[in-house]
Design a protein that fits this description.
Rossmann fold, alpha/beta
Length: 260
């Protein structure tokens, strides 16, 4: 990021007021012309350690962490460990900590897989994958986000039709009763898959070897298959169900500026 680039993005003076939907709409327009590094630097300036990267170790998350590292931005990083991840994913967690020199916090559900089977019944993912994702991903994430003001994700517009219109910055209601909002930042939104993997290989960033076996999007081993040629990146998730998202990106209402 150049000095002129950084200067062109407004920085808060002192303790900034909470962002409104109108503020976020204006920032989104500015961010469309900016690099991920510029957007990450803005988040670091505004939120400090109250901004964190959440990652499931997909390609875009790896690149985003690398860009932050190269820019000297030391964000907290966390991942959701459902207890049903591939062994390769668990191994990658440790390899990435060694590569970046960062601790990556594991967020786990209240119930182990075995406890969930006792309480709700065995193999919940085969009967009600929405409830399984809510129990093992959404609720733990909800608890984690209460510690933050800004959640930084690796979402990209090219991943699937349901993500084609995501903003580079969005505002969500985290707790309507308590009146708390959270900023969601998607710095990698404009990057195509080809650019992601070119960056990973150029900088030799550790990645999940399952990608080389045909898995384009990797979640729980119970609900992930290889992706066929020509399919959306996330087509290998939740086969046999009318489900395209786990819920972590859809459980909060988005705040929109309707000013014309």
């Amino acid at each position: 990021m150049t000095t002129s680039d950084a200067a062109s993005i407004p920085k808060p003076a002192g303790e900034p007021a909470p962002l409104t939907a109108r503020d976020v709409a204006a920032l989104n327009g500015q961010f469309e012309q900016r690099s991920p590094e510029d957007i990450l630097a803005w988040a670091g300036d505004r939120f400090g350690r109250r901004a964190a990267i959440g990652t499931s170790f997909q390609g875009s998350g790896l690149v985003m962490m690398h860009l932050a590292k190269m820019a000297g931005l030391n964000f907290p990083i966390f991942t959701l460990d459902t207890g049903l991840l591939f062994p390769e994913t668990l191994d990658l967690h440790k390899r990435l900590e060694d590569f970046f020199g960062w601790k990556i916090e594991s967020i786990v559900p209240d119930l182990t897989v075995e406890q969930q089977a006792e309480v709700i019944g065995p193999d919940l993912w085969t009967r009600d994958p929405d409830l399984c994702c809510t129990t093992r991903k959404v609720l733990p994430l909800q608890t984690k986000l209460r510690e933050l003001d800004c959640w930084i994700t690796g979402l990209r517009r090219h991943q699937t039709r349901t993500r084609a219109d995501i903003g580079l910055i969005e505002l969500y209601t985290l707790d309507a009763r308590g009146g708390s909002d959270i900023v969601k930042l998607n710095p990698m939104a404009k990057w195509p898959r080809e650019a992601i993997w070119r960056h990973i290989r150029q900088h030799q960033i550790p990645y999940n070897p399952l990608h080389d076996e045909g898995y384009k999007s990797i979640g729980c081993h119970t609900c992930t298959r290889k992706t066929a040629r020509g399919e959306d990146e996330r087509a290998g998730r939740w086969i046999g169900f009318k489900k395209v998202e786990c819920g972590i990106h859809t459980f909060m209402p988005r705040k929109i500026d309707f000013q014309i």
